[in-house]
Amino acid sequence: MVDRLHLLIGFCLVLFWSACDKAPQTTPMVISGTDSNAYGFFICNEGNFNWGNASLSFYHEGSKKFFADVYKPNNNKTLGDVLQSMEIIDSTAYLVVNNSGKIEMINPYTFKSKGNISGFTSPRYLLKVGPNKAYVSDLYEDAVWVVNLDLKQISGKISIGKWTEGMAINGNEVYVCGRNSYYIYKINCITDQLTDSLNVGYGAQDAGIDSEGKLWILTYGSSISSPRLLRINVQNFSIEKTYFFAAGTTPSRLNFSKNRSTLYWLNNGIWKHQCTDELLPAGPIVSASGRNFYGLGIHHEKGEIYASDAKDFVQKSEVYRFNSNGEELGKFLTGINTGYFYNRP
Question: Nearest 10 degrees: CA dihedral of 96, 44, 284, 330?
Answer without folding.
Answer: 170
